[in-house]
Amino acid sequence: MKTLDLDSEWKLGTVVPFLGKCRPFVGYCCQRCTPKSWEFFFHKNMISLGFCNVIKISEGNTRFRGWLVRRLCCFFTVCDWKICADTPSDLQKRIFHSKRVQDIVCQKVPQSKGDAPETSMPVPQWMQRIHSILCQIQSSVSPLLLRLSHWVLLKLLNQMFLGVIIHNGQLEMVRRAAEVPDVPVVFLSTHKSQLDRLLLQLLLISQGLGTPRVTCEYKTYPSKCRTLLALLGGVFLPQGVEQARDSEQGVLSRAVLASSSTQTLSLWTSLWTICRAACRGLGCVRVDFAQPFSLQEYVANSLFRQSSSGKCLEELLLPEILGKRCSILDCEKLEQWSPGSKGIIALNTEQEILVYNLGLHTLSAGVSCSAIMAVQIMSALFLHKHKEGVFLSQLMQDFVWLTEEILLRSYDVGFSGQVRDVVLHALFLLRHCISLYHLSLGDVLVVPKKTDEAMTELSQHSTALLPVFIQEAVGVCAASALLVELLPYLGSPEQLRDVVLVQEELHNKTVLLVQLLPRDFLLCQPCQSLYNYCQVAVDKLIQCGLLVAEEMPSDVLVCDTAQKRFTKRLLWKATDDFADSDSDYSDETGNCCFKISQVENCSNFFVFLCCLLSPLLKTLERATVFLWEMESPQSESQYVEKLHCFLARKAKEDSSFECVCRTLTTISVRIYKELGVLREAVGQGEPILHLSETFRAKENQEKLEKFIQQFIYS
After folding, report:
1. What does residue 423 show for φ and ψ, rounded to 5 degrees?
2. Euclidean distance between CA atoms 463 and 377, whole angstroms
C-alpha cells in the first residue's frame, strides 16, 4: 500500500462549472405572501438563459478589437462600466421630511430627562445638524477609485478562483427589480463567506445594476481609512448611533441613518479572506440570487394574516419533558424576542414580529437558491457515512447517489463534468483533510484525517446539505425515537425491523422535535404551521421510500405508545390561510401503518439523515451536561464562551468535532432560554443568565438530557 500526496504525485484536472440546461430553477419567493412578485419577477424563459462567468473578461466584453485590446481587455471593460456616483441633490430635504426625522423635529419621541425641549429650533438649524450627520455617514463616490479597486479585485479573483459563476436568469430577475422606478433594491446575504459583499458589489457594477452602498462601523477605522472607504461607497454609522437610546443625538442620528443606508462590512476580515483564498486556491465560486419580492406587498399581506396567538416553548414542551403531562401538540409555538435588544432602530412588538417573519422568508429563499458544491457533498459523505475510510470507486457511486437526491429535492448543484473528474477535483480541494492510499488491487483508499482541523473543516462544509434534507432528517430522528422506546420490550435489536409504526404516533413524535428546534433552523416559513411542517416531513419519508406501507396483522408489534389526546378542532384546521391539503388529514390517514424499509440503500440513507441532524442534538445534550457545571449567574457572552470550551473538550474525547461550532452553541443557548432552562436578568450592556429553579434539581436535568437523547441515533 502506497501513500499518495495530492500536492505532488497526482495531477488532478479542474472542472468547469455546469453550463447545461436541465437544472431546477431555485429561490422562488413565497407565492402565498407575495403572489404578484412571484409572477412579475419571473418568466419561464429565464430558466434556459444559462450561466456566465463574471470574472472571465475577453475582447468581446469591450467596444474595441485588436491585439492591444486582447491584452488590456480587463482594463477597457472596467472603464466601460456605468458607475452611478452622484448623490441626489434633494437628499437632505428628503431625509428632513421623512417620518422618523419629523418625529424628532416635532418632539414625538421621548428625550432623556436632562434634555431641554427644542420645539422652537428653526428649520435651517435642523438642516445644518442633518448635514453634519450626513457628512459622517457618507460622501460622494469616486468613479476613478471604484474602477481601480474593481480592476484589482478582478485580477485577484482570477488568481483565487477558476470562475465566479452566476445564472443569467437570476440576474434578469434582479434587473427587473432594479428597473422599477423610485424603488430601492435591498440585498440580504446568507453570509457564506467574508467575500460576499465584495462579490456582490463587483457583480452589480459589472452587470450595470447600480453601485451599492455598504455600511461600516465608525470606530473600527482611522480617519484616513474612513475617507478612502467613503470614496468607494462606504456608509459609516454616525457616532450618535452608539449613544443611549433616549439621548437626543442618538435618536436623531439613528433617524437620519434609517432614512439613508444598508448593512455592515469588516474590511480587514475581507482582506484576510482574500489572502487566504489566494494562497489555497478554492476552485469555483457560485453566486445565487433568490427571486426579488416587493416589501410593500409582503407587509400588506403579513399584517392581514399576522397573529400573535400561540404558546411559548416553555408552556408547550416543558411539561412533556418533566413527565407532568403530554405536550400540547395542536398549538403553534410563539416565537420569543429578547426585550431591549440593541439595534439601530427601536421597534415595537408588532414590528419585531414582522421583521422576524420577513427574516424567515428571506432566509428560506436565500438558502434554497444556494447551489450545493462538490466539496460540500464530499465532506458530508466523509463525516456521516465514511468516517473510517472508503474506496474511491465506492465514493464515486455515493457521490452520484447523493447528487441525484439533492436534484430530486429541487436544489441545484454547482458543478458538472465526468464523475471521476469532479470527485478528484473535490478531493484536491480537501487535500488537507484526507489521506490517500494506493492499493495493489488497483483501487485507492480515501481516509479522512482525525485531526481537529480536518474534522472541523469537513463539518463546516457538510452543513450546507442540512437545509436540503432538513424535513426528512427531522422525520427519521422522530422514527428512531419511537424505535428506541420499544427496545426495552424486545428480545434483541434485530426485532426492530418487524416493528410497525402508526402514522399518527410518528407525527406526534415529529411535532415534539419540531417544537424544540427554532423555525429559522428548520427553515419553516411563518405562513406555514408547524403542524403542517411535520405532516410534510412524514409524507417525504413515504415518498422517498424510507417508510413502506404495511397492513397490521395481530401478531406484529405496533409502536403505538402515546396517549390519544388530540383535540378535534386543530389549530391548523381552524384557519383558512393554509393549503387545501392541510385539511385532508383524517383518522383513517392517521392510523396508517408503516415499516422502516430494509432495502440496503434505504437503510444507509436513514442513518445518513439521522447523522445530519445529530450535531445540533449532541450539542443540546452536552449543553445539558454543562448545566451541572454552571456556576453563579454570568453574562450571556461569558456563558456561551464557557459552553463552547466545554464542547471542545468533549469533542477531543470522542472526535465529534462537528459539535464544536459557535453557531450551534448559540442556538442551544437560545433554545434553553425559550424552554425555561436558563433565565435572563437585565445586566450592564448584556443579559445575565442563571439557572432556573426547576432545573437546579439534578433529576430534572437528567429528564431533559433523556428527552434529547431519544432523538440521537446511536
Report:
1. -65, -45
2. 10
By the 8 A CB rule, do 390 and 444 touch?
Answer: no
How far apart (Å, rounded) are the C-alpha atoms in residues 120 and 132?
20
pLDDT digits 0-9 by tens, 60-106? 777 778 777 778 888 888 888 777 655 666 666 666 667 767 776 67
pLDDT band per the 50, 70, 90 thresholds, residue 473:
very high
Burial class (CB in 10 A: 0-12, 13-18, 19+), 88: exposed
Nearest to 469 by CA among 542, 541, 419: 541
Query: Does residue 8 register a pLDDT over 60?
Result: no
Task: Count Cβ atoms below 10 Å from residue 7 Cβ, excluding itself.
Answer: 9
Residue with cell 491585439: 67
593 forms bridges with which residues in the sheet? Answer: 502
d(CA 466, CA 522): 9
Phi and psi at residue 197, in whole multiples of 5°? -70, -35
- The answer to whether the beta carbons of residues 413 and 501 sit under 8 Å apart is no
Q: Which amino acid is at 54?
A: V
Asked if 333 and 310 touch (Cβ cutoff 8 Å), the reply is yes
- What is the gyration radius of the CA atoms in the chain, in angstroms? 28
Q: What secondary structure letter does DSSP report for 670?
A: H
Pairing of strands 444-448, 434-438: antiparallel
Cell matching residue 178: 432594479
Once rounded to an integer, what is the mean pLDDT over residues 543-557? 74
Ordered DSSP codes for 369-396:
TSPBPHHHHHHHHHHHT-TT-EEHHHHH
Find the DSSP H helices in 530-679: 530-543, 571-574, 587-590, 600-627, 636-654, 662-675
d(CA 401, CA 386): 14
Long-range contacts of 35-44 (CB under 8 A, 24+ apart): 36/294, 36/297, 37/291, 37/292, 37/293, 37/294, 37/297, 37/298, 38/291, 38/293, 40/176, 41/173, 41/176, 41/177, 41/291, 41/292, 41/293, 42/173, 42/291
| Nearest-10 crossing angle of helices 73-80, 143-160 | 140
pTM of this structure: 0.80
Q: Which of 503-536 are b and which e, b meaning 16 or more Cβ less than 10 Å from the residue's Cβ?
A: bbbbbbbbbbbbbbbbbbbbbbbbbbbbbbbbbb
Find where cell 432623556 sits: 112
Relative to beta strand 284-287, strand 214-216 is unpaired
pLDDT for residue 239 is more than 60: no
Q: What would the pLDDT profile of 606-657 be if each residue is shown by its tens digit? A: 999 999 999 999 999 999 999 988 777 888 999 999 999 999 999 888 888 8
**What stretches of 67-195 show up as alpha helix (H) in DSSP?**
67-71, 73-80, 91-96, 99-105, 123-137, 143-160, 168-178
Judged by phi (left if over 0) then psi (alpha if -120 to 50, else beta), residue 524 lies in: beta
Residue 121: strand, helix, or coil: coil
d(CA 659, CA 655): 10
Dist CA 695 CA 318 (whole Å): 11
